[in-house]
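Project outcomes to date are best conveyed with an example. Our students and postdoctoral researchers have been running inverse folding experiments weekly, and each run begins with a structure described purely in tokens. The record below, which covers 393 residues, was selected by the lab manager from last quarter's runs and is presented without edits.
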């Protein structure tokens, strides 16, 4: 396993740096590193290491979402209001509708199978969006209009909504019953996650205020709470819907609200952790991709992904209506909400594991969506944000 980790870091840094020299996102080099090292190419990664890849991806997401929460002001979120809330589910709904309309004629699947495929690819990737929005905040770009704050919050909540929808369609195709309560679980999981997270955050704020603890130890405590809350999500799923990721963001946001100066210091430490976590995350995403299988899908899957991306952008534009944002800023938001990676890698193979006839199609579409939208979305953000979003005066 240590050899696998060494290969991931060395080749990931090398190709990531090479792509940055070519003025391309480093994550593209990391994904290619995973494809090269993974079981579908050179097969240089230990099976034991790949066996814990889901946990390692979860660890990386906890780090980046904590970092996002440490700069997330609830006052700013309330100020943005309606568009911030709509961004949590409207773009994903538009994209799912796009797949339902496009996949049957282009890939020869039924409408219910297309709905499952849409649920598999409709989630935006916090791992791509969040670091770039934090960079925009540091540069004070679009903060007055709430652009980075809105995309930060939406990228976290969007995933919860999509996962519930995906689970509902998966149950339908497995022959299980799905009731309205399945969809009611979306606000319940968000609300319960936020409440538990804020409660933990208040306890940590009190602890850090009255007990002298080094900042490095505080980082370890916060990470441990995040890991435990994600495990709690699995343990109580049969009792009450609960989102561990929302709880993680809520803990960090509570620390920001209670002790802003501490949040700024801790954010710097999480930024350093993200250097290693980002490489692990995107290399493992690449390792999960079967490029040969994805290419067998032909042009149909590519057109479905591109068409769904246009539907998603239309959903973002809808969220921006009647806002003070300039049209160039609205266009930037449409571009920035494109990338997918982690959720698709995690759930793309689930229908196939259950033996559903559409399993290969779902896995293929998930793989194609990652290969197209992750680098494309990163390029969109990196190449346009300085031109489309001005520095606040």
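After processing, the design step wrote out the following sequence:
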């Amino acid at each position: 396993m240590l050899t696998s980790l060494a290969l991931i870091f060395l080749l990931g840094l090398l190709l990531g740096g090479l792509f940055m020299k070519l003025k391309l996102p480093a994550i593209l080099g990391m994904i290619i590193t995973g494809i090269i090292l993974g079981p579908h190419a050179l097969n240089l990664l230990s099976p034991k290491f790949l066996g814990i890849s889901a946990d390692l991806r979860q660890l990386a997401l906890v780090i980046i979402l904590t970092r996002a929460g440490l700069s997330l002001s609830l006052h700013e979120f309330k100020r943005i209001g309606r568009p911030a809330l709509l961004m949590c589910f409207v773009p994903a709904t538009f994209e799912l509708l796009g797949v339902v309309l496009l996949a049957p004629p282009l890939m020869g699947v039924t409408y219910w199978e297309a709905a499952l495929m849409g649920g598999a690819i409709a989630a935006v990737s916090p791992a791509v969006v969040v670091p770039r929005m934090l960079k925009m905040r540091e540069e004070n770009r679009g903060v007055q209009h709430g652009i980075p704050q809105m995309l930060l919050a939406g990228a976290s909540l969007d995933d919860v909504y999509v996962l519930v929808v995906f689970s509902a369609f998966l149950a339908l195709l497995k022959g299980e019953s799905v009731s309205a309560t399945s969809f009611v679980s979306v606000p319940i999981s968000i609300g319960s996650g936020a409440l538990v997270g804020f409660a933990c955050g208040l306890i940590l704020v009190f602890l850090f205020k009255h007990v002298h603890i080094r900042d490095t130890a505080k980082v370890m405590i916060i990470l441990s709470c995040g890991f435990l809350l994600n495990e709690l999500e699995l343990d109580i799923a049969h009792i009450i819907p609960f989102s561990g990721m929302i709880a993680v963001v809520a803990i960090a946001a509570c620390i920001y609200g209670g002790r802003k100066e501490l949040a700024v210091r801790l954010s710097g430490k999480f930024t350093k952790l993200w250097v290693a976590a980002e490489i692990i995350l995107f290399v493992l995403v690449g390792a999960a991709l079967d490029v040969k299988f994805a290419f067998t899908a032909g042009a149909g899957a590519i057109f479905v992904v591109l068409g769904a991306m246009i539907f998603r952008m239309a959903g973002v534009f809808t969220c921006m209506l009647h806002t003070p944002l300039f049209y160039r800023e609205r266009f930037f938001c449409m571009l920035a909400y494109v990338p997918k990676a982690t959720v698709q890698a995690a759930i793309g193979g689930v229908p196939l594991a259950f033996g559903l006839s559409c399993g290969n199609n779902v896995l293929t579409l998930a793989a194609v969506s990652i290969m197209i939208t992750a680098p494309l979305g990163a390029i969109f953000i990196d190449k346009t944000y300085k031109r489309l979003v001005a520095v606040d005066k």
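The chain has a mean pLDDT of 89. The CA atoms of residues 212 and 218 lie 10 Å apart. The training component of this project remains on track.
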